[in-house]
Design goal:
The complex is a heterodimer of chains A (about 180) and B (about 200).
Chain A (H helix, E strand, L loop, with lengths): L1 H15 L3 H23 L2 H18 L9 H23 L4 H14 L2 H12 L3 H12 L4 H8 L3 H27 L1
Helix pairs in contact in A: 1-2, 2-3, 2-4, 3-4, 4-8, 5-6, 6-9, 7-9, 8-9
Chain B lengths: L7 H5 L5 H13 L1 H18 L22 H11 L1 H21 L10 H85 L3
Helix pairs in contact in B: 2-3
The chains are: A mainly alpha (about 180), B mainly alpha (about 200).
């Protein structure tokens, strides 16, 4: 973990000097995590990939503003969070989602995961609010600490805990019957 | 949500330290409610994690374009300002250079100390000039006085000599007149004697 952090810091330093190869190597280390974070948030491969490209482009443009290279992960996911919710707001303002598009989006979300588990987990996650869902994604799938999540989402740790605990209570109820069915 | 020393949700989410985790595990071993809650959380997390991460449809990468890349000078400049150590070293070097240049080219006469010191310096210079002028004047006066005395003594000696010469001349004239008078008297006597001899019966 420490070895990786040092390597990331070295790549960040080289990127600041204009080394595009170093930045591409840095991307290769983080693109899967960023893509999956966005995928679970927006529910569409295509959107998640487009957003991932935007995230890494913005990160490259602003990498000189990153004061502590050791805080690269929260900083990068903060950009990803902003990009995802910027798209949400844009979509909401446009308010032109047709029924066909909604169906396509649901189908895309379903294609993301293995059929049964994917359906159950997707259904359970979709019952959460956007804030609760993002808290679960950052904690369960991305493994961030409470403090890092607070940094990414720019909210107090107490708010993070509240969102996460409420989400877990709901998920326990939603996913428990399926586990019972699986056991049977 | 938990009757133990810590929240079992924090335990399940990996937010507790090793000693804290030990305390929760000890408590759960004796508390059926907390053990059940922990098991439900574990199952829920396992369900969520049963859906693995996906691979991105394609790799993300940037192509180096010289047009958009900063120049070497720009990169150096940016790197320079972003390096605190380098910036500190440069500041120290500039300060040292400034001190050396100041020490080598310090204008001694044009130094501007405190105002009082400047005034004192000017007064001292002024007094020194006056002293020089006074000394020169005294020396000139002494020289002139000495020359005047010498001239006066020379003049007095010359006058005395001239007076002596004049007296000697007068004495010589008196002597000459006296000699001439005596000669005339003798000639007169001689003439008288001659006429007496020629007119008198023989």
């Amino acid at each position: 973990m420490i070895f990786r952090a040092v390597e990331d810091a070295d790549l960040i330093l080289k990127t600041r000097r204009g080394d595009v190869k170093a930045y591409n190597l840095l991307i290769s280390r983080w693109e899967k995590r960023v893509f999956n974070y966005l995928l679970r948030i927006v529910g569409s491969r295509e959107d998640a990939f487009d957003l991932s490209q935007d995230v890494f482009l913005k990160a490259y443009q602003n990498i000189r503003k990153l004061e502590d290279a050791g805080r690269f992960a929260p900083w990068l996911f903060r950009i990803a969070h902003n990009e995802a919710f910027s798209q949400f707001r844009k979509r909401r303002l446009e308010a032109e989602s047709t029924d066909a598009e909604m169906v396509e989006r649901e189908r895309a979300a379903e294609r993301v995961y293995p059929i049964e588990d994917a359906l159950a987990v997707s259904s359970a996650l979709n019952r959460l609010t956007a804030d609760q869902k993002e808290a679960v994604v950052l904690k369960i799938y991305q493994g961030f600490k409470f403090e890092e999540m607070a940094e990414i989402l720019e909210v107090p740790v107490s708010t993070i805990k509240s969102r996460l605990y409420t989400a877990l209570d709901l998920l326990k109820v939603e996913l428990a019957p399926m586990k019972t069915r699986g056991a049977l | 949500m938990s009757c133990g020393p810590f929240d079992v949700r924090d335990y399940a989410l990996g937010e507790l330290s090793v000693p804290e985790r030990g305390q929760v595990e000890s408590h759960a071993a004796t508390c059926a409610n907390c053990a059940t809650e922990l098991e439900r959380l574990r199952v829920t997390q396992a369900m969520l994690l049963s859906v693995p991460d996906e691979e991105p449809p394609q790799r993300i990468g940037f192509i180096s374009d010289k047009v958009f890349e900063p120049s070497a000078a720009r990169r150096f400049w940016n790197g320079f300002w972003q390096s605190g150590a380098r910036l500190g070293f440069a500041s120290a070097a500039m300060l040292s250079t400034a001190l050396v240049i100041f020490a080598l080219h310090r204008p001694v006469e044009k130094a501007t100390p405190a105002p009082m010191a400047t005034i004192a310096s000017h007064e001292a210079a002024h007094d020194y000039t006056l002293e020089i002028r006074q000394a020169v004047a005294d020396a000139v006066q002494q020289t002139e006085s000495r020359d005047a005395k010498r001239a006066a003594s020379l003049l007095a000696a010359a006058e005395q000599k001239h007076e002596l010469e004049h007296k000697e001349l007068l004495l010589a004239v008196q002597d000459t007149v006296s000699v001439m008078q005596k000669r005339m008297n003798r000639m007169t006597l001689a003439s008288n004697d001659l006429s007496h001899d020629l007119g008198a019966p023989r």
